[in-house]
Every structure is written in C-alpha cells, then in structure tokens.
Amino acid sequence: MKLTAAAQIQTFLRGPPPDVAIALIFGADEGLVRERAETITRAILGGATDDPFRLTQLSGEGVRQEPARLADEYSSLSLIGGRRVVRVRDAGDALAKTVEYILTLPRGDALIVLEAGGLDGRSTLRKTCEAASIACAIPCYADGPAEVARLIRDTMSGHRIRIDEDTVQYLVNHLGNDRMVSRQELEKLILLGGEGGTLSFADVVASVGDSSALALDDVIYDALDGQYRATAEGLDRLFLEGTSAVSILRATLRHAHKLHLAASHLAAGQGIDSVIKGVRPPLFFKLVDRFRAQLRAWPPARIERMLSLLHTAEFNCKRTGFPDDTICRQALLSLGRIPKPKS
Q1: Is it the case that residue 309 has pLDDT exceeding 90?
Q2: Distance between alpha carbon 336 and the CA centroid of its chain, in Å?
Q3: What is the number of other CB atoms lying within 10 angstroms of the CB of residue 154?
Q4: Which of 112, 96, 105 is nearest to 58 (CA)?
Q5: Residue 182: pLDDT band by 50, 70, 90 thresholds?
Q6: Are residues 149 and 221 in the same domain?
Q7: Does one domain contain both 47 and 75?
Q8: Residue 240 within any structural domain of the chain
Q9: Which residue from 153, 169, 179, 300 has the highest number of Cβ atoms inside 10 Å of its Cβ?
Q10: What is the mean pLDDT of residues 222-243?
Q11: Residues 266 and 306 grouped into a single domain
C-alpha cells in the first residue's frame, strides 16, 4: 500500500500496525528518510534506537550480496521478547526480488524498514511495496514552506523557546528544504536561545544569515538584476554544495511573491520607504538597497511574467524527466531578459 496523506503517515510512524511486514521509506530528502526511519524504530522499541537485541542494521549492498540474511533476520525472534526492527540503508531496486520472496514467507515478528533515495514510478521495489497488503511505501518529498515552518515552531516549542512569526518566516526562507540540514541549524539556534529563552530576529540572522543562505540570496538577486555571469557562477557553487534545483526555484518564487506584493503597494501610491519597512519577513540589511532597486525595475506586470516562468520551471523539474539543474539554470538566466511592460 502507499501512504501519501500527512495524517496517514504520521499515524503509521507513531505506531506501525503489527500486520505490516515491510515499510519502504524513500525520497530525495535523505534527512527526512532517516528521521522517519528512526521515528518508526523508536515507536517499536519503546523510544530506543540502538537496542542490540531487537534492532539489526544492514546495508543494501550487503543484502544484495547475501539475500538470505534479510529473510533470516525477518524470521528471527528477539531473545528478550518484543517486536524487532531490521533497518536496511541504501535500499534500491536490486532488492526487489528479495522483498518479493520475503512477502511470501510466514509472518515474522520483525518489521523491515527499507531506507531508499528517490524512486520514480517505474521502480520495481516501490511497485512491490505499494502492491502488497502487508507492505507500505512512504514517500519523503522535500519540505515546502508550510512543513519547514511547522518544524521550526514544533522544535522551539519543545524547548519553550519564544520566537515571533517574522523570525519564523525568515528561517523558512533560509533553511532550505532538507530535513537533516534544517534540524542541524535548529539545534544551533536551540543552544543560542537556551531552554525557555527567546530568539530575536537579529539572533537568527546572525546565526544562519550567512554562507549558503546568503549565497542563495545573492544568486536570486543577481538573476533578477540580469547579472548572467554572477548568476551562473553562483548556481555552480550551490549545485556543488548539494542545493537542489527545486529548492532554488522555490526560494526564487518566494522572493518574486514578496517583490510582487511590495510592487503592488508601490503602484497603489504607497511610499517606497514605507513599502520596504512593511516587507515580511524583514529584509536582511545588506539586501535592502538591492530590493529597493528591484522594486523600481520590476513593476507588477513584469513580476507576473517571472512568476509564470518560475512555476513552469518547477513543474518541468517534476514531470519532464529533463535534468533539474539544467531547467533551473535556464530559468534563472532568463529572468533578466524579461522585458519591462510598455508604459
């Protein structure tokens, strides 16, 4: 079976049903895949993730070379009682035949958790788990703004740290959409804020407002300013650091929506200083002058053409099969060429 609804997935993670033998967790977001596998492990092992009697960890390559090992682990009972977990990292289609065989065996007392990368609809492993009544497939898509915001609020609430909505939105725009990277950044902020403390906007900017976050901002501003060489070089660096094309496009879309709202206020007669002061989340001080210049260069009609181009690029990344990096690069390098509407 396939679990896609957020409520379904959360219910399964908190208490995997005893009749499910195999859980395939897959997706490009490696951090979210690992987090969900650990959540399932804790649910079964009573909060533990390293019980030597009830947890076995294998690699996909190891299972491929010795398929019988996975079947043996599935059928084995815990010496101290309780349901067991068998985690297989780096699973892939090479394990599909082994999984098909295990699904024919008498029901064991273990749950096999397969952790895999991105598997498209043609994946034999994915198809096998989706078709079986005692297996499930859980996709892990990159976090969108709503998921990142929820993660921030839940994490800070768990440590009784106060954080206002402007600061949350700034973090949403700068954390990216990889769950593991986001959690690492939030762990630093927890130490900065302290249990029961407060995180101010200035604190957060000082902590995460540099390196890759500002590099992404620079690429977006360069793209809209028509700085083609700087945009291309900035994209090269982001791709080498592992930033996904979709996350770059989504960050550019967020900037475009922010610019569109501000440009609409400006076109309605509001003063430019007032417009900039009202931008939410507040602009990083080093980018205020560039945003001001873009407000003058990008009236609402021109921004609407940009939004259409970016939405099409994100759609093409998900549906066409062309390389995401190429689609993203072509889209951002096209922004500066969008003509201004005739007055």
Answers
A1: yes
A2: 28
A3: 10
A4: 112
A5: confident
A6: no
A7: yes
A8: yes
A9: 179
A10: 91
A11: yes
| Overall domain count for the chain | 3
d(Cα 285, Cα 73) in Å, to the nearest integer?
57
Q: Is residue 341 part of a domain?
A: no
Check whether residue 69 and residue 43 sit in a common domain.
Answer: yes
Kindly report the number of other CB atoms within 10 A of residue 81's CB atom: 10
Residue with more model confidence, 285 or 102: 102
What's residue 154's pLDDT?
92
What's the pLDDT score for residue 160? Answer: 95
Question: For residue 176, what pLDDT is reported?
Answer: 67
Residue whose tokens read 């390196």: 211
For tokens 């788990």, the residue is 129
Residue 110's φ and ψ, nearest 5 degrees, are -110, 155
Which range marks the domain in which residue 61 is found? 6-139
In percent, the amount of the chain with pLDDT more than 90 equals 61
For the chain, the average pLDDT equals: 89
User: In this model, does residue 209 exceed pLDDT 60?
Assistant: no
Last residue of a domain, one of 102, 123, 139: 139
- Boundary-marking domain end, from 102, 117, 139: 139
> What pLDDT is recorded for position 281?
76
